């Protein structure tokens, strides 16, 4: 996984870098196939903003969050990203099995009605 953390109008310190890395571990725990991660931390007047762009096989996932505190913005960003990654993982693992199950149930009901 290639990790790039950049700052716009702020210096990315070691504790800030460690905090972002710690939050991203939660994402990689759910999904191993992360290829590239780009994090942009920025300050605009009194608003702290955190943006992330994750490239995984077949899809790019983007999330952003703003808050008065940069650490709180990173927390909210990690929550948003976690939900998006889990949703993508569920879609990827679904393979349409539910539709197949429903089709089998409909066929069974039709057969039962035909026998009555």
TrEMBL record:
Associates exclusively with 100S ribosomes, which are dimers of 70S ribosomes. The keyword Plastid does not apply. InterPro entries: HPF/YfiA_ribosome-assoc, RHF-like, RHF/RaiA. Residues 88-100 have a biased composition (Basic and acidic residues). Gene3D superfamilies: Ribosome hibernation promotion factor-like. The keyword Iron does not apply. GO terms for molecular function: ribosomal small subunit binding. GO terms for cellular component: cytosolic small ribosomal subunit. PANTHER family: 30S RIBOSOMAL PROTEIN. It holds the Pfam family Ribosomal_S30AE. Keywords: Translation regulation. Residues 88-116 are annotated as: Disordered. It comes from the Bacteria. Residues 102-116 have a biased composition (Low complexity). GO terms for biological process: negative regulation of translational elongation. This is Ribosome hibernation promoting factor. Belongs to the HPF/YfiA ribosome-associated protein family. Short HPF subfamily.
């Amino acid at each position: 996984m290639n990790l790039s953390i950049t700052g716009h109008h702020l210096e990315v310190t070691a504790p800030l870098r460690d905090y972002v890395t710690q939050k991203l571990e939660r994402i990689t725990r759910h999904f191993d196939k992360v290829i590239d991660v780009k994090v942009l931390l920025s300050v605009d007047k009194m608003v702290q903003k955190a943006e992330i762009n994750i490239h995984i096989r077949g899809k790019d996932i983007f999330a952003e969050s703003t808050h008065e505190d940069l650490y709180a913005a990173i927390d909210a960003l990690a929550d948003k990203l976690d939900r998006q990654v889990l949703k993508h993982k569920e879609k990827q693992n679904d393979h349409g099995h539910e539709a197949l199950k429903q089709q089998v149930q409909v066929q069974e009901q039709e057969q039962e009605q035909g026998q009555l």
